[in-house]
Each structure stands twice: as C-alpha cells, then as structure tokens.
Write a structure and sequence with these properties.
The complex is a heterodimer of chains A (about 220) and B (about 80).
Chain A (H helix, E strand, L loop, with lengths): L1 E6 L6 H11 L2 E6 L10 E4 L19 H11 L3 E5 L1 H8 L6 E3 L7 E9 L14 E8 L3 E3 L2 H9 L3 E5 L10 E5 L5 E4 L17 H11 L1
Parallel strand pairs in A: 1-2, 1-3, 3-4, 4-11
Antiparallel strand pairs in A: 5-8, 6-7, 6-9, 9-10, 10-11
Chain B lengths: L1 E8 L6 H12 L12 E6 L6 H16 L5 E8 L1
Antiparallel strand pairs in B: 1-2, 1-3
C-alpha cells in the first residue's frame, strides 16, 4: 500500500510517521505541500507539527496549500486519510472533519502519555483492535475538541468517535481524541500513534492503527 | 483606507486566556470587572485605488474565507479613511 506523507513548512512529525509506516511494510513517500497530485497513492497522512508557525489559527493557512485540493479530491474517492495532531487541525480547517479544536482548558501545552479507549471498531483504522486500550503521547496546546449539539449527536449516532481519552487531559467534549468522517475513510486524532510505534519510545500501541489499515487493504 | 478587524470567540466558547487574565486582575485588586474576552485585532491597509465599498467587500471576504473560524468566532470591522 502506497502512502504519501504531506510535508508543510513547519511539519515536525513527518519523519516519525515515515519510520512508523515503513517498518510496518508500507511503501512511503514524502510529498511537498506545493505538489498537486496524489493520484499514485492509496493513502495519505498529514503529520503533526506547526504548519506555517500556527499563525492566525492552527491549520488555517495550511488549508490553502496546493496539495489540500488533491487531499480533498482523493478523500472523495474513498482513499484512507489520516491527520495526526496538527494534521487533525488541518483536516478540520479544510472541512473534511466536523467541529473545532480550541485551546486546552488549562491553557497549557500538554506533552504526556495518555490512554485511549477504542470507542468504535467499525472502521478500517480500528477493525482489528476491538476492545483494546492504547497508550501513546499527546503534544498540543489546541486539542480541545468542541462541536455543537447537532454535530455531537451525529458523531455518536454514526459511530464516528473512534478514540476517547480514558482521562480527559484537555477539556475535549465527550472525551474525544479522534474522529472519522461519515464516509469512514478520513481519520483525525490529536494523540500521536507514529510516536508510539517502537518499544524504545515507551509504547508501540500506535502500530495497531497503521497495521489495521494495512490488513484491511490487503 | 484601512480596515480595523475584530475577531472574538462566540459566546459559550471556552476562553482560557480571558478567564486567567480576569483572575490576574482580581489578584492585583482591580475591581468591578465581570468577565474578560480576549480576541484578535487585525489592521488591513488597502491600496490607493480601493474605495470604501471595495474595502468593505474585501474585509468581509477575508474574514469569511480565512481570518475567522465560523464555528468558534465572530468578526466585525470598521473601515476608516
């Protein structure tokens, strides 16, 4: 399975994602944000970081990068798209996922290991890991997920909440750590599975998500 | 011609900066403040060829497309000569 990792000015988890996907057996390539075609890829990952220095709002400027038009186009074809941390913020700003990510309720940048519950196994990202708890780090200041009642109800009714925090670190509504779109091919999550993909990093639970996608593709 | 643009959180959106700043003002004994909201202030200078109607349209378009997040923020602006 060929995966593109999009690189923006200010991305800083691109190499972590490359390492994690490569080790699992993906064919991985970096794609600079000025490129305009993603035709040759089966999946797309938007990594964490501080695209455009987080100027104005996190993800707000990145959504106008040329590559984002292709990301939206490929998402409509049903290709797998994963946005992690800043990548999640970019997917939200681009309208591929609903809601907003605002300042953490304690106004601090939080960097620590968290435990995630898998809320739904009805997705390519979680199909093979039902009932597991996953340990991986978060590292963000704007990860507090909010949405209006209508969106929250839809997320629940359609099983779009995949991951929830066991202990809510940032104030997110419904303890939301990661959601998917209605079509179930676009995942956005604040925790970093790519930074938990090797035992030497303190956890390798993040691998389960990428492995689940690969198993589903095969 | 200049636009002075104000962006603030919608009511009900958590504004930790405002809350903390309000607490700090209370702690230095400044009284009478109910709440504080902290937003963004943007100044936009227009090219000489732009008239007031154009400026209004440009500021409106900029706010809608990029400067404000319609989910969480509201915007307003004034155009000045």
């Amino acid at each position: 399975m060929k995966f593109a990792i999009i690189v923006f000015p200010g991305s800083n988890c691109d190499y972590d994602a490359f390492y994690a996907l490569k080790n699992i057996g993906y064919d991985v390539k970096f794609v600079w944000h000025k490129n305009t075609s993603l035709d040759n890829f089966d999946g797309i990952l938007i990594p964490g970081g501080f695209s455009y220095g987080d100027y104005l709002r996190t993800g707000a400027i990145a959504k106008f990068s040329p590559i984002m038009k292709s990301v939206i186009k490929e998402s409509k074809k049903g290709k797998v798209i994963i946005g992690i941390c800043n990548g999640f913020q970019i997917l939200i700003e681009s309208g591929l996922l609903p809601g907003s990510l605002i300042n953490n309720s304690n106004i601090k940048f939080i960097s620590k290991q968290v435990i995630l519950n898998i809320k739904s196994s009805n997705s390519v990202f979680t199909r093979h890991i039902e009932g597991k708890q996953l340990k991986m780090p978060i590292a963000h200041r704007q990860g507090n997920y909010i949405a209006n009642d209508k969106i929250l109800k839809e997320l629940q009714d359609n099983e779009q909440i995949l991951f929830e925090y066991a202990n809510n670190p940032n104030g997110s509504m419904l303890n939301i750590a990661g959601i998917i779109n209605k079509k179930r091919n676009v995942l956005g999550m604040m925790p970093h599975p790519e930074r938990a993909s090797d035992n030497i990093l303190g956890s390798s639970d993040g691998k389960f998500i990428f492995e689940s996608v690969l198993k589903n593709y095969a | 011609m200049k636009a002075k643009i104000f962006i603030k959180y919608k009511e009900g959106i958590l504004d930790p900066q405002g809350t903390v700043t309000n607490k700090a003002l209370k702690s230095i004994n400044i009284k009478g403040i109910d709440s504080i909201g902290i937003g963004k202030y943007i100044e936009m200078d227009f090219k000489k060829s732009i008239n007031k109607d154009n400026a209004t349209a440009i500021a409106e378009d900029s706010c809608k497309q990029l400067l404000a997040n319609p989910n969480t923020e509201t915007y307003s602006f004034i155009i000045e000569d």
